[in-house]
Write the structure tokens for this entry.
Amino acid sequence: MSSSEVWERQQVKTFTAWCNSHLRKLGIHIESVAQDFRSGVNLVKLLEVISGGEIARLETGKMRIHKVNNVKKALDYVASKGVNLIGIGAEEIVDGNLKMTLGMIWTIILRFAIQDISVEEMSAKEGLLLWCQKKTAPYKNVNVTNFHTSFKDGLAFCALIHRHRPDLIDYNHLRKDNAVYNLQYAFEVAEKELDIPIMLDANDIASTMRPDERAIMTYVSSYYHAFASSQQASQAANRICKVLNVNQENETLMEEYESLASGLIEWIEHMIPWIDQMREQRASSIDEVRSRLEEFRTYRLTVKPPKTEEKGKLITDYNTLQTKLRLSNRPAFLPTEGKLIVDIERAWDNLETTERGVEQHLMSELIRLERLEHLFARFSQKCDSLAAWVTESKATSRETILQRQTSTNSSAK
């Protein structure tokens, strides 16, 4: 078999499988590109699937002119995409000219599957080759320098799959001298796990001295697009996850702010009456004043400092949240009524105003009560001295009276 017959056979198989990978989206399956594009209908459908929209109104007649017109509409669309179709005419496609048909399909593949590939400023064939080289560089027995002999032993295909999905290929157990197995292994895994149709024949590729470059490129481009789509989906999923995580973090910060603000305001509202009571309610004893003074000092030194830190954290969290929302183009956070930063600051000012002078008031009250206690003690002491003097005086008086009475009685006798 001549080399031209080999590449024709390989191209027919590969191009047919490539076309079916797109036409299946419409429920269409062709047996061979050599015959099934002659009416132009399937050709137009193929281009519509690839382009994502209607490209021409098909003629439904069965006559040759209708077929030629349909094929011409397809070729006109391809030409409108900047593709040079010199030498490829609608009549040759309708007549089933194999070389022309394969040339047309290759032109379509090159334009819609390979031309837009770009890797490090290299595009199309060079970009695809560079992509293969970069992805397979770490693998032993793989040296991709072209799209024919470099893929004969199947290891390059296996390496491409393993690089992106190491869970699918056991690369370390592959042997370079087992080309048919390697090729079939890669083809079957790609079909089953990656939804890439089998486009090449393992025995044919392994036994051909120089496999057809266009067939290999077409199949490899399917790997590129499959993994690129997977990577894009992964990147999109990562972006969505990142957005969701940021939103979740923002929601958590909002909830924390609301909770912290509520707790702080409730604490302030509870403490203000307690402090007022210390100032306004008159104590009944020195011990009571001393107890209040100790409580107030404990409040100032132990209870209030953590709340001061909470207030600082509340303001920091609020500013951080607003910055994050602004950077992510989200609406600013508006706390519920009564929990704005200005409300927190106002409540805190009221607390400190209420505190002002309380300790001095309690100290003054303590000094006053201690002075009163001292005066009372002195008064009691004087009272006791007076009472003792009165008692002593009474006793002396009685003794004097008795003595006088005794003396009087003695004189009378």
About this structure: The mean pLDDT is 87. Strands lie at 118-119, 122-123. The longest helix spans residues 213-280. The first strand starts at residue 118 and ends at 119.
